[in-house]
Structures are given as structure tokens and as C-alpha cells.
Amino acid sequence: MDEPLGDAPGLVAARPPRADHIPAIARALSDDVDFDLPEYYRRGVGDTYFSGKQLAKLGRIVVAASELRDLAGLSADGG
User: Fold this and answer.
1) Cα–Cα distance between 65 and 78 in angstroms, integer?
2) Residue 17 Cα distances to 20, 24, 48, 53, 67, angstroms
3) What's the pTM?
4) What's the distance, Cα to Cα, between the start and end of the chain in Å?
5) What is the pLDDT of residues 31-70, one digit of tens each?
6) How many Cβ atoms sit within 10 Å of the Cβ of residue 45?
7) Which of the 8 DSSP states describes residue 21?
8) Structural domain boundaries of the chain?
9) What does the alpha-carbon distance between residue 59 and residue 72 come to, in Å, rounded to a whole number?
10) How far apart (Å, rounded) are the C-alpha atoms in residues 32 and 58?
11) Phi, psi of 15 (to 5 degrees)
């Protein structure tokens, strides 16, 4: 049996967000980027399950912000 799986999944969205949703996404990312890891995680004494979830959250923030920046045609330095 042969099951075609299609292209490998990627990190970016399959299609861009609707233009009227972009400001709300940008506001949410702005709030999320101010997220501060608890001190015990920064010291490396948090448990591995929740520290992995925190790392995944930060990774998703970076990917979403990068995708919005690309949609806006901005460079990494904001210009």
C-alpha cells in the first residue's frame, strides 16, 4: 500500500493571515514578546516538562513574529 503524504510540514503558515487580522496578531505578539521566564527556569532548576513547553512557546513567538515581519517587508533590524 502506498500513501502519499504530500510535502513535509514547515514552520510557517500555509497561507498568510487575513489583512484585517494582522493588527490583532501583532498586538498579541507584542504582549507575548514581553514574556519573562521565571527566575528558576533561567537558573535551570525548573522541571523539564514545563521548561520544554516554555521553550516551545518562545519558539512559536519567534516564528510568528518573523512571518509577520516578512509580510510587512521589513528586515531583521526593522528597516
Assistant:
1) 12
2) 8, 11, 33, 25, 10
3) 0.69
4) 51
5) 888 878 788 878 878 788 888 888 898 899 999 999 999 9
6) 10
7) G
8) 19-72
9) 20
10) 8
11) -145, 155
